[in-house]
UniProtKB/TrEMBL annotation:
One of its GO terms (molecular function) is hydroxymethylbilane synthase activity. GO terms for cellular component: cytoplasm. It comes from Paenibacillus catalpae. Belongs to the HMBS family. It is an enzyme of class 2 (transferase). Keywords: Porphyrin biosynthesis, Transferase. SUPFAM superfamilies: Periplasmic binding protein-like II, Porphobilinogen deaminase (hydroxymethylbilane synthase), C-terminal domain. The gene is hemC. The keyword Transferase applies. This is Porphobilinogen deaminase. Tetrapolymerization of the monopyrrole PBG into the hydroxymethylbilane pre-uroporphyrinogen in several discrete steps. Its EC number is 2.5.1.61. Pathway: Porphyrin-containing compound metabolism; protoporphyrin-IX biosynthesis; coproporphyrinogen-III from 5-aminolevulinate: step 2/4. Monomer.
Amino acid sequence: MVGAANNEPRTIVVGTRQSALALTQTGQVIDELKRISEKHGFDYHFEIRKIVTKGDRILDVTLSKVGGKGLFVKEIEQALLDGEIDMAVHSMKDMPYELPEGLMNGATPKRVDPRDCLIMKEGTSLDDLREGARVGTSSLRRSSQLKNMRPDLQLDSIRGNIDSRIRKLETEGFDAVVLAAAGLTRMGWQDRISAFIPVDLSIPAVGQGALGIECRREDAGVRELLDLFNDTETSLAVRAERSFLGALNGGCQIPIGAFAVVQKKAEDSFDDAELELTGMVGSPDGEVMLKEIRKGTDPEQLGRDVAAALVARGADRILAEIGDNV
Ligand SMILES: NCc1[nH]cc(CCC(=O)O)c1CC(=O)O
């Protein structure tokens, strides 16, 4: 409880990127927040404000070449700090590790499917891809892991929002494209998924399938509402994954993956819950693939432990080499 007068009428302005996925997930979050608001007697109304980010303006350039973390969130954070918007819904995996002074993640709602999946011209599993098939992804994490499993595949960069990537499957001669199941499901396009890749074969991006809702630290009213939308299990898992990413100083443009699951000790509480975190660092060509699995009860410590175990095996050298080349 942050101590707000929650019966004051208020219009909460929600900032969002204008991609179809961003608009859809923002709409879904607002629907949930309206329900929570009503249930708890808040007199809150919601308004959407679209914001164009640097990442949106350079979608035609290979993002890993442009570099920089948080390409999709900087303008949104500025709007929050300036009070133009009151909250912003992000895909957790696009949220930078460090938030600016004055801002915080107010809620991590329940995660949906964290897996990567294939959308294929034909077939229903990775094994159905012909020898030398051309697969589209611009994620080094995905191409590294796919190359590791199937060195014959030709991985080519594909850019754009998920709708345009699906279109490019047909128009640009790919046999398959790799996307997150979460985005497709949120768009209602789950029927397009040909094959899910299990999380132990394609370790998801940190926070994949989860959302984060950024707000101002001082905004007690918004924080009180967002507290009610937080999912403890997802939040614990994402904290461990993000701590791992932070310890490796990573962004989303390097082959790093992490996935945590929570094992509860008691059915109705998260006291003493144990987390199991898998962390991965690979070389872009998939020849080196380092993975570590550890358990612990402190999410931040667990993230640092898995990162340290990978660094001890040379992960920092792999990451430094990639850093030099982009
Ligand atoms: N980097 C783009 C991005 N950011 C979030 C999602 C959707 C998946 C999610 O919410 O985790 C996607 C598309 C994709 O990776 O296929």
